[in-house]
Design goal:
Length: 366
DNA sequence: ATCGTCAACCAGCAGT
DNA sequence: ACTGCTGGTTGACGAT
């Protein structure tokens, strides 16, 4: 018999016997003695982890007819059975009739159904019967979950006592609650990533448009400059050579000069730099645009830095543009980056190259 | 009848 | 060996 099989058999036996013996005993004991039942209706803390002390509105729910105790008993019970985080000098205690409260409907019914059952075996698991927890039980568990989503053994027993549940039920509820929380968190993160991608995509499209405009302007400027020179050097025999050199430079700029950028002569670079300065105010690249300041950024993301977006143009995606994109998408999973089809394998898996079409961006819509 | 929710369960893994 | 966790599944139950 393997270890796993032994484990499974043991666990099945435990469940068939009504769960862990000590847990069951604790529950039954609590039920036998808990003529007084208490729960707390707590305002849900604004944020998980916020302590539920001072100022929480607290309601003690008492079974009116069977309550043999004074307010002193109530206080004693509460202090003995509450976690420190639920205690507070500012907490208000209200004694109310709970006959109508949903929290006790199930208990009451069970008790009535088992009036002759002196050992209080009203909670053992009945195969095929599932009872929903009452709204009050769920609310109490939710409050505790927000304080701490893990469940220590003592706390589990404590909660089970206070809620009239089996500790195993409490444990299962916390497990399921964690699973639900994780699912929601994943959905939320996906939404944030999607929004982030949309912004990057929009910026990229705008950059492409800006790039095209710059190219056109450079072309038009290149037409003007040679004509001026021609006028000044009409008889200059080197004119042809100058124009030839100039044309090479222009082509290098427009068609991709990353190979030897330093050879670009100053006049052309100045023109481009002036254009950069004018374009720096573009809303496309404005680091103060709303998507950087909406205050709703997930911790998953760092603000995109578009400050490099108007470096001297390279028609192909060169190193600068790769840097821009890699900075803007620092946390994209590697598989997404490598989705681009390469003619040749990339030398570095973290550098990537965009094809002329922006098919790279299809990974969200695929 | 169908669908969504949720308590309960199972299998596998990890820590003690 | 024991315990608790995660991920996945099952089945009861309520809403439509």
């Amino acid at each position: 018999m393997t270890k796993d099989n032994r484990d499974k058999a043991r666990r099945r036996n435990l469940r068939c016997e009504g769960g862990d013996a000590s847990e069951a005993a604790a529950t039954m004991n609590s039920r036998a003695t808990a003529v007084l039942r208490a729960t707390a209706v707590l305002r849900a803390p604004a944020m998980a982890g916020e302590k539920l002390n001072g100022g929480s509105s607290m309601t003690l729910l008492l079974q009116k007819e069977t309550l043999p105790c004074s307010p002193d008993h109530i206080q004693t019970f509460w202090v003995q059975n509450s976690e420190p985080s639920f205690q507070g000098s500012k907490s208000s205690v209200n004694v109310v009739n709970v006959r109508d409260r949903p929290f006790f409907r199930g208990v009451e019914r069970e008790e009535n159904e088992n009036e002759d059952d002196e050992d209080f075996e009203v909670f053992p698991h009945q195969p095929g019967k599932k009872r929903r927890l009452t709204s009050e039980q769920v609310q109490f568990l939710e409050s505790n979950f927000e304080v701490e989503n893990k469940l220590e053994p003592e706390r589990k027993v404590q909660l089970a006592k206070e809620l009239g549940m089996q500790p195993r039920q409490v444990a299962i509820w916390f497990q399921n609650r964690r699973a639900r929380f994780k699912t929601k968190q994943l959905e939320k993160d996906y939404g944030i990533l999607k929004a982030r991608y949309d912004i990057l995509k929009r910026d990229y499209d705008n950059l492409v448009q800006e790039n095209d405009k710059l190219k056109e302007e450079v072309y038009s400027l290149m037409k003007v400059i040679p004509s001026e020179k021609e006028e000044q050097n009409l008889d200059d025999t080197s004119c042809g050579a100058v124009n030839s050199e100039h044309k090479e430079q222009t082509d290098m700029i427009i068609n991709g000069g990353s190979e030897n950028e330093s050879k670009v002569t100053l006049p052309v670079m100045e023109i481009i730099k002036q254009k950069d300065a004018n374009s720096a105010k573009s809303d496309v690249l404005d680091s103060e645009s709303p998507h950087f300041t909406d205050g709703n950024q997930s911790s998953l993301f760092e603000p995109a830095d578009s400050s490099h977006a108007l470096e001297p143009d390279h028609s192909d995606f060169s190193q600068d543009e790769e840097d821009i994109l890699s900075q803007n998408m620092p946390l994209l999973p590697k598989f997404e980056v490598e989705y681009v089809c390469y003619d040749e394998p990339p030398e570095n898996p973290f550098t990537f190259r965009f094809p002329v079409e922006d098919q790279t961006f299809c990974f969200w819509s695929c």
